[in-house]
């Protein structure tokens, strides 16, 4: 019995010691990066830039702390892409250099001396491209925490200076006979000049249409209507660019509306698919009413046969790769994709399906209507991050 009590006492002592040791470890200052990512948008005439790489402590310590940095590898970038649903590339080694790979956090302070990451030849980056440079803490005289890598994102933004002015003009899309969607995404950049009830962004009237206003919905409110119908409470304003999207997942029947990559409304649909075979328009309602037109501008109109995620929507508002998986139709509307053939004006579909849209005005009836040259105007697309 005495032996058992002795063993229990030893175990209790060891457990208490382990707890105190763990508590001491938790309270001990640790090294980490305050920012998990830093971003640079490369403007015109910018060819070089310097980032300050600065590790820090969780708490002040009474001794100097030495920190060693290292540039990460392509696998780190691949893992970063998988986590953030992006397709960024590792920046080529000749385009950056770390001024030095070590720094000191002096006694009584929490931040290390800045170490410069120098970026060069940035003007050669293609529009719409994003490169990443991962910098990681590989050694320190105190323990590190999980946040020991910072990712430097360097992006050459897409600049859109020309867009299509609708205001009575619209596009008809030649949908194939098998246009059945088990999952679906509509998206577009929109700019409202004037609000009117039942003004169409895009869709198939009576089936699935993204529009503004209804008999019980204000003209400033966006709505999805047809075989699923709902709207967010938010109200839009004129003279401002927005990215709008409708996303449907047939497996879960979840329907969602996004504005600038943020979900603003959702509803569980009663259907598991949509058949969009038949008349499909951008900026027009099938049963034509001269008031049911899009009074404003649009750019980057797309249809997908997949349910795009919030990250995918937000990260690709100004443009996508035409070869992207699930891209069903893609009309840029920037003036570079329009052409005329035998007196008919078209907007080229950038996707592999080649569903070139016909530019029209007036009444569309019986699969036909007058064609007109699209009105491409100078207007910069400016949307917030």
List keywords for this structure.
385 residues, mainly beta, Immunoglobulin-like, Jelly Rolls, 2 domains, 8-stranded antiparallel sheet, elongated
Structure description:
With 385 residues, the protein is mainly β. It is 11% helix and 41% strand. It contains 3 helices and 29 strands. It has helices at 2-27, 74-84, 310-315, and strands at 31-33, 37-41, 49-53, 55-57, 65-71, 89-90, 96-98, 102-105, 115-119, 130-140, 149-155, 162-165, 169-173, 180-181, 183-192, 199-204, 208-214, 217-226, 241-249, 254-259, 262-268, 274-275, 280-282, 296-304, 327-331, 338-341, 344-347, 357-361, 375-378.
What secondary-structure arrangement, pairings included, does this model have?
Layout (H helix, E strand, L loop, with lengths): L1 H26 L3 E3 L3 E5 L7 E5 L1 E3 L7 E7 L2 H11 L4 E2 L5 E3 L3 E4 L9 E5 L10 E11 L8 E7 L6 E4 L3 E5 L6 E2 L1 E10 L6 E6 L3 E7 L2 E10 L14 E9 L4 E6 L2 E7 L5 E2 L4 E3 L13 E9 L5 H6 L11 E5 L6 E4 L2 E4 L9 E5 L13 E4 L7
Parallel strand pairs: 2-11, 6-10
Antiparallel strand pairs: 1-4, 3-9, 5-8, 5-10, 7-9, 10-11, 12-24, 12-29, 13-23, 13-28, 14-22, 15-19, 15-24, 16-17, 16-23, 17-18, 19-20, 20-21, 24-25, 26-27, 27-28
What count of domains describes the coordinates? 2
| CATH class label of the largest domain | Mainly Beta
How can the largest sheet be summarized?
8 strands, antiparallel
- Radius of gyration, in angstroms, nearest whole number: 28 Å
Query: Low-confidence parts lasting 5 or more residues at pLDDT below 50?
Result: 7-26
Mean pLDDT: 90
């Amino acid at each position: 019995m005495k032996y058992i009590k002795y063993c229990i006492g030893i175990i209790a002592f060891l457990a208490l010691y382990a707890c105190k040791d763990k508590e001491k470890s938790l309270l001990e200052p640790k090294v980490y990066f305050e920012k998990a990512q830093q971003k640079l948008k490369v403007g015109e005439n910018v060819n070089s830039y310097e980032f300050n790489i600065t590790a820090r402590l969780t708490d002040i310590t009474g001794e100097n702390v030495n920190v060693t940095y290292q540039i990460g590898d392509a696998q780190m970038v691949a893992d970063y892409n998988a986590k953030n649903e992006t397709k960024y590339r590792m920046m080529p080694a000749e385009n950056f250099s770390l001024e030095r790979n070590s720094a000191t956090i002096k006694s009584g302070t929490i931040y290390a001396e800045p170490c410069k990451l120098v970026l060069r030849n940035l003007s050669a980056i293609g529009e719409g491209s994003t490169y990443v440079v991962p910098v990681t803490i590989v050694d320190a005289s105190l323990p590190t925490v999980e946040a020991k890598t910072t990712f430097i994102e360097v992006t050459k933004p897409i600049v859109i200076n020309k867009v299509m002015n609708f205001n009575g003009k619209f596009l008809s899309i030649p949908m194939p006979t098998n246009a059945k969607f088990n999952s679906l995404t509509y998206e577009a950049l929109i700019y409202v000049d004037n609000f009117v009830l039942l003004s169409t962004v895009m869709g198939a009237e009576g089936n699935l249409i993204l529009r503004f206003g209804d008999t019980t919905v204000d003209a400033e409110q966006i709505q999805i209507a047809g075989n699923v119908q709902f709207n967010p409470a938010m109200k839009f304003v004129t003279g401002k660019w927005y990215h709008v999207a409708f996303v449907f997942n047939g497996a879960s029947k979840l329907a969602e509306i996004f504005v600038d990559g943020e979900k603003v409304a959702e509803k569980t649909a009663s259907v598991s698919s949509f058949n969009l075979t038949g008349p499909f328009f951008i900026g027009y309602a099938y049963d034509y009413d001269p008031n049911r037109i899009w009074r404003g501008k649009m750019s980057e109109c797309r249809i997908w046969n997949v349910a795009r995620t919030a990250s995918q929507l937000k990260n690709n508002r100004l443009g996508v790769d035409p070869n992207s998986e699930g891209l069903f139709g893609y009309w840029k509307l920037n003036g570079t994709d329009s052409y005329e053939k035998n007196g008919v004006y078209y907007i080229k579909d950038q996707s592999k399906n080649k569903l070139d849209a016909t530019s029209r005005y007036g009444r569309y009836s019986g699969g036909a209507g007058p064609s007109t040259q699209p009105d491409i105007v100078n207007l910069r697309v400016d949307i917030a991050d």
